[in-house]
């Protein structure tokens, strides 16, 4: 876990092939997971695969977007803030992906404008077409070169025909006209089965294929998402009207878990289709054995472990939004499966614990996790929860804000610093045990909130014999960060003298990365300044999550 991947020297792979995945009919039908699954099955054929996501919005990155609107923000190793699809690529492929593999309309325009201002176009007229698609193409090719990829998979966000994604569809057309044999286009479509007729309808897919062809791009393969498998009759119909071969209409019915999807694709020999289509240099027959073992483990668990996740972003109108903490939830699952356990995860809104009477409900859970967060909302409730689980010896795992608040709770209730706070909430408090880092102060003063966070991978040195060190089984780790504030150094000695162990620190000792309580005081009370969930993978669960789940189960 948290290992560095080898930095490869750039090599131009003349044979790199590119598979674009576009959406037909509507969004929200699992195009991202389908793309990750395609990448996975090609990896299972012995190919070197990398994956790119193009988001058509104008935001330069996903960092400034509200998580209730756009889901959790994912952070790549090099610090780029992206959407969840990049996370899926890393989960499925079990590789670290660099920032060049993520682009938005905003980031592409930003690069073109910067180049133009720098006289990079030699004084000529810079135009939307071809200069914008060309910038996208150059990034796609560069990403392939860096990864020395046999195949680059590129998911274009949105659905065909949308104004927003048209320049990226144009990029596909331009690439295909240049090297037609190297480019494949997969359209993930949706086939509704209206309750009133009870029959699967192909018409929306026919329209989507037609819309795509109006942009000069033709789908080579159609993934037919639906509640049920596509039958032979409809397969023929889609093939005839959408101009693809019948064997290139692949059924993609709903499945129990997203992790079944690569296996399901292979039931329909999707990797064979793609390999034939693009003449890919496969070195082996499909081998997804490790993945299959993970899927079967996830379905054959014995006991349960009950985990409460206390957050603030769980509700939107009448809906519960678990997507906001998706990496945390998935990380809990991977570690539980590894231990042969079935996690029962309950989302609790921190505001409910502003009333201390509700705290006793926490007794029902084997472990409590407070994930990352920003701002004032719900922090009173979180502090009450942390005090309760600390005193009642319920296993606790605090991530980022969950660690800062654990330090703050300790300062308020153990060190009796009643006016202790974090600079984020009350900059005028007497004891700012959590404060803004000096390096970031200047950026915030300039109003550059988007650029004022510590982002991406940084090292931490672990204290020998601590819970963290025993879990990682090493003394130096690299973990991904996304935060503005840090434990204030001025209070570290006082906090340590009162019983907290800072078991992970930056190599220069200035930044507190992990805090914990000794195990004779509490079975598992650990807070981390970084986001371990960003490096938890199905085939490589995160050791700290595993330690937390194990302690929770054992404290039942
Ligand atoms: N709000 C805190 C900070 O910015 C924690 C951030 C987080 O939890 N991701 O430092």
- Give helix % range: 25-40%
Q: Any idea what the shape is?
A: globular
Average residue pLDDT: 91
DSSP helical segment count: 18
Strand fraction: 15-25%
Q: Pick out the low-confidence regions.
A: 1-12
- Chemical compounds bound to the protein: glutamine
What is the makeup of the main sheet?
9 strands, mixed
General description of the model:
With 556 residues, the chain is an alpha/beta fold. Helix content is 35%, strand content 21%. The chain contains 18 helices and 23 strands. The strands form 5 sheets. The chain has a 9-stranded mixed sheet, with helices on both faces. Strand 22 and strand 23 form a beta hairpin. The longest helix has 20 residues. Bound molecules: glutamine. The site of glutamine has 11 residues, from helix 14 and strand 19.
């Amino acid at each position: 876990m948290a290992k560095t991947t080898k930095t490869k020297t750039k090599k131009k792979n003349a044979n790199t092939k590119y598979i674009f995945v576009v959406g037909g009919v509507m969004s929200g039908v699992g195009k991202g997971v389908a793309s990750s699954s395609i990448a996975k099955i090609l990896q299972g054929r012995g190919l070197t695969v990398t994956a790119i996501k193009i988001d058509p919005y104008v935001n330069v990155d996903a960092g400034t977007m509200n998580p209730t609107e756009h889901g959790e923000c994912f952070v790549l190793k090099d610090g780029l803030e992206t959407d969840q699809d990049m996370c899926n690529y890393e989960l499925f492929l079990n590789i670290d992906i660099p920032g060049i593999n993520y682009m938005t309309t905003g980031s592409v325009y930003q690069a073109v404008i910067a180049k133009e201002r720098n006289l990079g176009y030699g004084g000529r007229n810079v135009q939307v077409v071809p200069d914008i698609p060309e910038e996208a193409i150059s990034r796609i090719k560069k990403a392939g070169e860096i990864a020395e990829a046999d195949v680059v998979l590129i998911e274009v966000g949105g659905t065909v025909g949308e104004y927003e994604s048209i320049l990226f569809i144009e990029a596909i057309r331009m690439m295909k006209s240049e090297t037609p044999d190297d480019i494949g286009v997969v359209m993930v479509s949706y086939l509704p089965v209206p309750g009133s007729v009870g029959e699967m309808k192909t018409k929306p897919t026919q329209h989507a294929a037609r819309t795509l062809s109006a942009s000069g791009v033709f789908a080579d393969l159609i993934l037919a998402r639906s509640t049920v498998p596509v039958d032979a009759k409809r397969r023929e119909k889609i093939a005839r009207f959408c101009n693809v071969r019948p064997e290139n209409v692949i059924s993609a019915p709903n499945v129990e878990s997203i992790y079944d999807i690569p296996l399901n694709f292979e039931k329909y020999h999707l990797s064979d289709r793609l390999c034939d289509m693009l003449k890919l240099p496969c070195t082996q027959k499909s081998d997804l054995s490790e993945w299959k073992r993970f899927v079967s483990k996830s379905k054959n668990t014995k006991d349960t472990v009950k985990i409460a996740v206390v957050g603030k972003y769980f509700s939107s109108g009448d809906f519960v939004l678990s997507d906001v903490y998706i990496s945390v939830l998935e990380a809990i699952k991977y570690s539980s499966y590894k231990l042969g356990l079935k996690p029962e995860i309950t989302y609790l809104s921190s505001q409910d614990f502003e009333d201390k009477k509700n705290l006793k409900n926490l007794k029902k859970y084997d472990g409590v996790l407070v994930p990352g967060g920003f701002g004032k909302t719900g922090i009173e409730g979180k502090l009450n929860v942390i005090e309760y689980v600390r005193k009642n010896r319920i296993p606790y795992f605090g991530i980022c804000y969950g660690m800062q608040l654990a330090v703050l709770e300790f300062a308020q209730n153990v060190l009796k610093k009643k006016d202790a706070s974090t600079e984020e909430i009350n900059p005028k408090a007497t004891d700012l045990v959590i404060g803004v880092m000096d390096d970031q102060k200047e950026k915030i003063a300039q109003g550059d909130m988007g650029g004022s966070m510590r982002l991406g991978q940084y090292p931490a040195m672990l204290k020998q014999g601590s819970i963290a060190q025993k879990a990682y089984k090493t003394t130096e780790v690299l973990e991904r960060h996304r935060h503005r504030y840090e434990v204030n150094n001025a209070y570290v000695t006082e906090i340590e003298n009162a019983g907290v162990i800072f078991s992970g620190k930056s190599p220069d000792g200035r930044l507190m990365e992990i805090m914990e309580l000794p195990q004779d005081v509490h079975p598992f009370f650990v807070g981390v300044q970084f986001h371990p969930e960003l490096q938890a993978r199905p085939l490589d669960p995160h050791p700290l999550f595993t330690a937390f789940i194990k302690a929770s189960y054992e404290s039942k």
